[in-house]
Amino acid sequence: MTARALAEWHPLRRVAARPPGLEAFFGLLEPYTSLYERVFSLQKARREHEELVHTLRTGFGVHVLNPDELLLEAAGRRAEVARELVDRVLATVRFNGPGSDRARREFRENVRLLDREQLVQILVLSPTIRFERGRGTRSVSSFPTLRKPLTNLFFLRDQQAVTDRGIVIGRLAKPQRRGETEITSFVWRAAGERPVAQVVKGTFEGGDFLPAGEFALLGTGDRTNATGVREVLEHGLGFPEVGVVHQPRHPLLPTPDPMVNMHLDTYLNFPGEGIAVGHREMLEAARVEIYLREGGAYHRSRETRLLPYLEETHGFRVVGISTLEQLCYATNFLTTKDRTIVVPDVGRNAERVLANLRRAAERQPARYGRLYLRAAREFSQLRAEGSFFPNKPEFRDLAVDSTQVPLENLTGAYGGAHCLTATLERS
């Protein structure tokens, strides 16, 4: 198998998707530190994920792979993968307190009796068992705790990017997510998709990468830093031109809130060759450094802004979206082939996003008041006109075929169809 992607609009052949599991249950107990936008129904989120996968498989013939299943299948075929899986589990579970030596020894003796699905869940949850001894024979209490469960692992876009060279393993910026790449890189190696590069010093997340044929875009800001960009440029890309996009501040916010546009794909995406969808105000504000590949290395050429870079330099038709639509993950669609996309149902997302923004504006009116007022006005207008993205005349004129999927619960964790999927092959 060869993982490779040259442009977002090339036909999507293989993609990885992982439904939210038990780790998301714990994440919903405290959404803020889990990097979620709001509370949502986990049961409904799982059904939404099933519908997304079903749509990709039956509607577009995409080969959708579950990384847990990939790992378990590889462990069943190859003894060295099975041994590594067990070794990783033994290194993950911790025992503390009186009797911990006995418990650790027995766990090591019995770990191979666990179901393989349990082994994967252990890696995701990172449990610690603490013992306390009371009075009497066998009066020992155990208190399980979880060390940074990987509550965002179902957002498979971010742990890696698939470029013109292959899989580039990232390094996630937030400590809550740092352990995710340890699992995904293990999965790809076990499945025969050996990564071509890995970011080890800086930070880099896959939502900050968009391939566009003759060039590619790399976002930098809160999640991907300058060191990570340099590592990707040095080892992970072969495009003749790369635009490094600096994360802009939202024009309606007096101080930056990186979560509003955490990744490049939260305010820009490509539904087809020569077509872009984006929030024009942020595209106008975003600074871009252009790098050209010469002699096997990238050299900085010039600097411009993202909107003219797309429209004037590369001749893209840019379809603008409103502030509310951007907040509702309108650009977080997944392009399955040229002018064909799977997109979150923006209209269904809007009420929940707006309610959450209203609460933020009530708590911090000086920071979020203007943003909420703009979004509220746009909501009334878009609903009255029935013109929530992708139902826009300009978009229809471009003959882009769109399939809307309900993701109003999954988007509560800060991401849409693009974030939920890891492209493995476009051809």
Overall pLDDT score: 96
Q: Can you tell me the CATH architecture of the largest domain?
A: 5-stranded Propeller
Percentage of residues in DSSP E strands: 15-25%
Main sheet: which strands, in order across? 9-10-11-14-15
List keywords for this structure.
5-stranded mixed beta sheet, 427 residues, 2 domains, single chain, L-arginine/glycine Amidinotransferase, Chain A, 3-stranded mixed beta sheet
What is shown here, in short?
The protein folds into 2 domains: 12-63 and 154-426, L-arginine/glycine Amidinotransferase, Chain A (5-stranded Propeller), CATH 3.75.10.10; 71-146, no CATH class. The chain contains 14 helices and 20 strands. The chain has helices spanning 22-27, 42-60, 67-77, 79-92, 100-110, 116-125, 180-190, 226-235, 280-285, 306-313, 323-327, 346-363, 365-385, 393-397, and strands at 12-16, 63-65, 94-96, 127-133, 140-146, 160-162, 167-169, 197-198, 209-212, 215-220, 241-246, 268-272, 275-278, 287-294, 297-305, 317-320, 334-337, 340-344, 401-405, 422-426.
Can you give a write-up of this model?
Helix 3 (67-77) packs across helix 7 and helix 12 (346-363) runs antiparallel to helix 13. 36% of the residues lie in helices and 23% in strands. The longest helix has 21 residues, at 365-385. The protein has a 5-stranded mixed beta sheet with strand order 9-10-11-14-15. Strands 2-1-20 form a 3-stranded mixed beta sheet. It has 427 residues and is an alpha/beta fold. The chain is built from 14 helices and 20 strands. The mean pLDDT is 96. It starts with 11 loop residues before the first strand and ends with a strand. It has helices at residues 22-27, 42-60, 67-77, 79-92, 100-110, 116-125, 180-190, 226-235, 280-285, 306-313, 323-327, 346-363, 365-385, 393-397; strands spanning 12-16, 63-65, 94-96, 127-133, 140-146, 160-162, 167-169, 197-198, 209-212, 215-220, 241-246, 268-272, 275-278, 287-294, 297-305, 317-320, 334-337, 340-344, 401-405, 422-426. It folds into 2 domains: 12-63 and 154-426, L-arginine/glycine Amidinotransferase, Chain A; 71-146, no CATH class. Helix 7 (180-190) links the parallel strand 7 and strand 8.
